[in-house]
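Side project, low priority. Logging it here so it doesn't get lost.
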Amino acid sequence: MKKSTRVHHPSPVQVPADNRPVVAPIYQSVKFEFDTVEETVRSMRGERPGFFYMRASNPTTRQLELTLAALQDRDDCLATASGVNAITQTLLALTKQGDHVLCFIESYGPTRYVIRRLLGRFGVTHTMLSITDLVGIEQALATTPTRLVVFESPTNPVTKIADIEAITRLARRHGAATLLDNTLAGLHQHGQYDIDFFLHSLTKYASGSGDVMGGAVIARAELLRPLRIEFSVQGGVLDPHSAFLIQRGLRTYFVRYREQSAAAGRIAEHLARHSAIAGVHYPGLPTHPQHALARAQMTDFGTVVSFDLRAGAEAGRRFTESLRLFAKAASLGSTESLALAPQMLQPHDLTPEQRTTSGITDGLVRLSIGLEDVDDLLADIDRALAAAA
């Protein structure tokens, strides 16, 4: 074999069955082969295990999917290139012309966009209510045949809590499937509820380092099976190197989430005592309007704290720009603390009435608490509040 051929056909290295790597390798290969055409075709038909093309599956990505499914108390998962990609592919796969979707004002902005604009172009209608309007939810489901109920809890950025048991019960009664964007709550929460599809941005808590993007839809295998071919042809797959990094991040997931949640609780309590702040939004606070519901549904209250500055948007800008330890950046759930000013949070697609319902005020600031020492973060916040005044 000439050297110019050898570089394309390196000598294989077989790892003995009783000599396993402690950390699984990255299968950085788009293509996989079998010994015979017959076995290749059987694999393509789903008649035997194996891999053929990365767009359909990859061993590294599949390991991550199985880990995520187990954390969410389900048995299957599809990993995608980003959280928004998971939302978009799932909604496209589950709806058709003439379907109706029930969604909520407090939902993530891109989710509203996909439902109202993208699905709307294809003849899918929607009703948009407040996540706390259980009477309206029941009326909408009773009067309009509905394909999907799409919601999140806690909501971003005001941390409203959805009554998951009530919403899923109403959806089931009227034949609608449920999709819960569970990103803020995390992979270890809400699995006890009768949710059909869990959506996650793996960019946040699963990765933890803020250096890789990914998304996931998690469900029972029989619900995900029809989605596999559609996800494959849409092509928004998670590459194996990103899957490896997210799988690595999951090793510290519980330590990070619980430590960051504890720090967020301390910071929320501190902010609630400050005279410049009109209100603090954190479900772990007894003053949160849905604190009892949060306690019933969650074991940890999350790492996002938002609050309303009495002096409004300009004070919010000064506060955010005065912070030294918080990056003025999007996303959440990573090890570094982040802050968003009011000017970065306004929902421009909502009417004034809907914006009031959303709870996003002119002076709203959102903090995502990282792993810095909480006393240092508190001192930084106090300095910035003084500067904002």
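Brief comment: The chain has two domains: 37-252, 253-388.
Revisit when time allows.
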